[in-house]
Structures are given as structure tokens and as C-alpha cells.
Design brief:
The protein has 312 residues and is of the alpha/beta class. Helix content is 48%, strand content 11%. Helix 2 packs antiparallel against helix 3.
């Protein structure tokens, strides 16, 4: 059976929790690997067909994307679903939303797929992404410095814009959504908001299951999976993130959902979040103002809360 359910993002918008809500449902089989990214790798392979037209940097980037995961070939990807039985849906969860060209590839693979998209206030999303990198020791600069590298001054309009290549671009959802609706139709693309899930997880799941046409009375174990922040101890954080004898044995005796919960609470205890400066908050609101207006009209949802300048 082909994969017919794709939860595609956005990044830092509850995708891990949604994956677990889907995975727990008896009528849904989710890939045991959350983010195989097979279709992005396939896109990169197609680009490499004309490698003579690519710059050295583009070639390296595409090759790295293909080789950076274990399940990026067709055979390896399909092996993730060898245990599928009489499930109504077979699904996976990769952040394909930020790779819009994959919409066509997935449509070629299975035009009858259902697409789930969960969006978050783009300012809170980029802040959460930054704090994730801090947690994992991938960045050590302040959030202000992190953002300063991602924006450019538009002299003509006298405003700040997101740099052409910037993680801020992940928050321009309206353009990213269009290909999915064009290929799969609005009836097969379900758009949620992060606030929906955080505010009332039970109601969120009821609506999710109802849209999929599976048993909406099923109640999954609530999971808050991805706390982020600055570690109060780098040694403790390294221990939490490093494979060891204790963690391997816990995997054998403890349910996956329980391990996820324990990890979340451990992260919450050992992580702290710094505040966003008022100056950066204002800049980001200016950058995303028009995008939020476009998205509000596109999905017919009130996003006024996203437009309020506040510190995280």
C-alpha cells in the first residue's frame, strides 16, 4: 500500500505531537521514522540530472540532502511500511511544506493523498527554531544577533526585509501552501493552527480524526514533545542527548510515549528561555505583517493575535 497521508509542517509548529496523535490511532500506520524526507531527496536527485548547470555550492547542497538520511532511496523508504496491515491510512511526517516542489512529486507518487499542515505565528516559530539550535549547541549567539544575520535593509521602502536566503522565509506560509492546494485540491489539504493544538489537544484530535474519516472517539495520549531553550548545564544536556546504556534499556522496558514525556519534562526543567528584545519583535512584526494578512484571507482564519507586538 502506498503512503496516502502526509503531515508536512511547518517546522516548530507541533509536527512531532501531530505525528504521535496519528501514530497512536489504530486505523493509521505512521512511518517509524518521523522525518524520512524521501521526496525532498528525490527532488534533489532530479536536479542533479543536469549537474553541469549547477554551481559547485548547489551540487554539494543537493548531494548532502540525498545522503544525509538512511531512508532516502525508494527501496529504503518503502521498507518503512513493511508492517502495514489493514490500515486506512499509511503516513509519514516530514517538513515538506518548506520544500514546495515536493508537492508535485508526491502527487505523481499518489494523487489521492491527504495533506496535513499546521502553522504557527511566524515570529514565535523562528524564535522557537532559534531556541532549538541553542538547546542543541548549534548556535551560541543571542537571538538579536541571530536575526540580524537574517534581515536586510530595503533602502527604497525604508523597511527591513527577510534576506533572500534566510530561515525567516519558512514563515511565509501563503506561497508554500499554494502548490499543495493546486495539486491535491482544497478538500484534501487540512490546515490547522498551532494554537488549536496547544489550547485544546482533545478537540484538535477530534477534528483531525473527523477530517480523516477515522474513529474520532479515539483518545490518544497527549504528548508535548519538543521543549527548547538554553541549557542550565551543558553536561546534563549532553547526557540527555547522548545514547547510553541506561537509555537503551529504557527503550526496551518503557513505552515510547512515556519516554517522550520524560524527555519533555527533563528538557523543561533544565532549559530556560531568554526574552526577545522589543526592537527585534517590532522588526519581525513589520516583516511578517503583509504575509499574515495574506494568510488570514487565504485560510479564512482570524490571525489578529499574530499581529500583536509582544515579547516571547
Amino acid at each position: 500500500m502506498k503512503v496516502n497521508l502526509f503531515s508536512i509542517g511547518a517546522m516548530r509548529a507541533g509536527s512531532t505531537s501531530i505525528y504521535h496523535f496519528l501514530d497512536q490511532h489504530p486505523e493509521i500506520y505512521m512511518s517509524p521514522i518521523k522525518e524520512p524526507y524521501y521526496f525532498h531527496a528525490e527532488f534533489c536527485r532530479r536536479r542533479l540530472v543536469n549537474e553541469n548547470d549547477l554551481s559547485t555550492e548547489e551540487y554539494k547542497c543537493l548531494t548532502a540532502s540525498i545522503n544525509s538520511g538512511k531512508y532516502r532511496t525508494a527501496e529504503a523508504y518503502q521498507s518503512l511500511f513493511n508492517k502495514v496491515e489493514e490500515h486506512q491510512y499509511v503516513g509519514e511526517a516530514s517538513h515538506y511544506l518548506h520544500h514546495p516542489a515536493t508537492a508535485q512529486l508526491i502527487h505523481e507518487y499518489n494523487p489521492n493523498s491527504k495533506i496535513i499542515i499546521c502553522l504557527r505565528n511566524p515570529i514565535e516559530r523562528i524564535y522557537s527554531e532559534y531556541m532549538l539550535y541553542v538547546r542543541d549547541s548549534k548556535v551560541s549567539i543571542t537571538f538579536d544577533n541571530f536575526i540580524s544575520k537574517a534581515i536586510v535593509w530595503n533602502k527604497e521602502k525604508n523597511i527591513w526585509n527577510a534576506a533572500p536566503i534566510s530561515r525567516l522565509n519558512k514563515g511565509f506560509y501563503s506561497k508554500q501552501i499554494i502548490p499543495w492546494i493546486e495539486f491535491f485540491g482544497v478538500e484534501n489539504v487540512k490546515i490547522f493552527l498551532f494554537e488549536d493544538m496547544v489550547g485544546d489537544p482533545a478537540e484538535f484530535c477530534r477534528k483531525l480524526y473527523s477530517w480523516l474519516g477515522v474513529d474520532m472517539a479515539f483518545q490518544p495520549v497527549p504528548i508535548h514533545a519538543q521543549a527548547s531553550g538554553k541549557p542550565i548545564s551543558s553536561k546534563i544536556m549532553k547526557g540527555l542527548n547522548t545514547d547510553n546504556f541506561v537509555k537503551r534499556n529504557l527503550k526496551r522496558i518503557m513505552p515510547h510515549s512515556t519516554r517522550i514525556k520524560l524527555r519533555y519534562y527533563a528538557y523543561k526543567f533544565f532549559l530556560k528561555r531568554e526574552k526577545m528584545s522589543n526592537e527585534v519583535s517590532i522588526i519581525l512584526h513589520d516583516i511578517y505583517k503583509d504575509e499574515i494578512d495574506r494568510l488570514e484571507e487565504m485560510i479564512s482564519r482570524d490571525l489578529s493575535a499574530w499581529k500583536k507586538t509582544r515579547l516571547c
